[in-house]
C-alpha cells in the first residue's frame, strides 16, 4: 500500500503501488486524452443554442481515468499523472510554435492557417492546463478524502462527489480563459458555454459510472499490490 491519502482517524484505506503494471497504461491514455481534447477544443461548436467546443468529445474520459487512478493508486500517484499530463501539454505547445517558426516550403500554402490554429491552441493550452490542474487535483483529493472515511464502501459517492467538485473547478477556470480563443464574446454565450459544459461533462461521467465501476473493479482484482482494508 502507498498510504498516500489525507490524514484521517482509523485504518488507512488500501491503495496499489504506483509501480504496478496497469498504472503506466492508465497514465499514457490519460495524457493522450488531455492533449487530444486540447487540440479539438480549438473549434467552437454550436448545436442550435448550445455552445461548446470540440473538446467535449473525449475530455470527460480524462475524469473517468482520473477516478481510477485516485481510487486504486491514491492521491500522490494521481497527482503524478496530472503533472505528467501538464508537462506533455506544455511540450506539445512548444513543438507547435517551433513548427510555426520553421521556414515554410515553397509548396506549403497553409502557414497562416497553422498560425491561427496554434495561436488558439496556445490560449487553450493555458486554459486547459490551468483548469486541468485545478479540476483534476480537486477530483483526486476529494475522492481520496471520501475514501479515507468510507474505505471500500460507497464507491458511487466517491465517484459522483469527486466529479462534481473537480468538474466545477475545471470548467470555471477553463471557460474563463478559453472563451475568447474560440470566439465567445458575449456574456450570454459565455454563461451558456460554462453551465452547459459543466452539466454535460458531469452527466457523461454519471452515465459512464458503470464503466468506471467495472474498470476500478478489474484493476483492483488484478493489481497484486492492492489489498482491500
TrEMBL record:
Main location: membrane
GO molecular function: transmembrane transporter activity
Protein's UniProt keywords contain Mitochondrion: no
Subcellular location(s) of the protein: Cell membrane
GO CC terms in record: plasma membrane
Topology in the lipid bilayer: Multi-pass membrane protein
Function: Involved in the import of queuosine (Q) precursors, required for Q precursor salvage.
PANTHER family referenced in this protein's UniProt entry, alphabetically: QUEUOSINE PRECURSOR TRANSPORTER-RELATED
Family to which the UniProt record says this protein belongs: Belongs to the vitamin uptake transporter (VUT/ECF) (TC 2.A.88) family. Q precursor transporter subfamily.
Protein name listed in UniProt: Probable queuosine precursor transporter
Source organism per UniProt: Mycolicibacterium brumae
Amino acid at each position: 500500500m502507498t498510504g498516500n491519502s489525507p490524514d484521517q482517524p482509523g485504518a488507512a484505506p488500501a491503495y496499489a503501488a504506483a509501480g504496478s503494471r496497469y498504472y503506466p497504461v492508465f497514465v499514457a491514455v490519460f495524457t493522450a486524452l488531455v492533449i487530444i481534447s486540447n487540440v479539438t477544443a480549438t473549434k467552437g461548436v454550436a448545436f442550435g443554442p448550445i455552445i461548446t467546443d470540440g473538446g467535449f468529445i473525449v475530455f470527460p474520459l480524462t475524469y473517468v481515468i482520473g477516478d481510477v487512478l485516485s481510487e486504486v493508486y491514491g492521491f500522490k500517484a494521481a497527482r503524478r499523472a496530472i503533472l505528467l499530463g501538464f508537462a506533455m501539454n506544455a511540450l506539445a505547445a512548444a513543438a507547435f510554435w517551433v513548427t510555426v517558426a520553421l521556414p515554410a516550403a515553397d509548396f506549403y500554402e497553409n502557414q497562416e492557417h497553422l498560425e491561427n490554429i496554434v495561436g488558439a491552441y496556445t490560449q487553450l493550452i493555458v486554459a486547459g492546463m490551468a483548469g486541468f490542474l485545478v479540476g483534476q487535483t480537486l477530483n483526486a483529493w476529494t475522492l481520496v478524502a471520501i475514501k479515507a472515511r468510507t474505505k471500500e464502501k460507497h464507491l458511487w459517492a466517491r465517484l459522483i462527489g469527486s466529479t462534481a467538485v473537480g468538474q466545477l473547478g475545471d470548467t470555471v477556470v477553463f471557460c474563463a480563459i478559453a472563451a475568447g480563443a474560440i470566439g465567445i464574446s458575449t456574456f450570454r454565450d459565455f454563461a451558456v458555454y460554462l453551465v452547459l459544459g459543466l452539466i454535460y461533462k458531469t452527466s457523461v461521467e454519471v452515465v459512464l459510472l458503470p464503466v468506471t465501476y467495472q474498470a476500478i473493479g478489474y484493476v483492483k482484482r488484478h493489481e497484486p499490490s492492492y489489498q482491500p482494508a
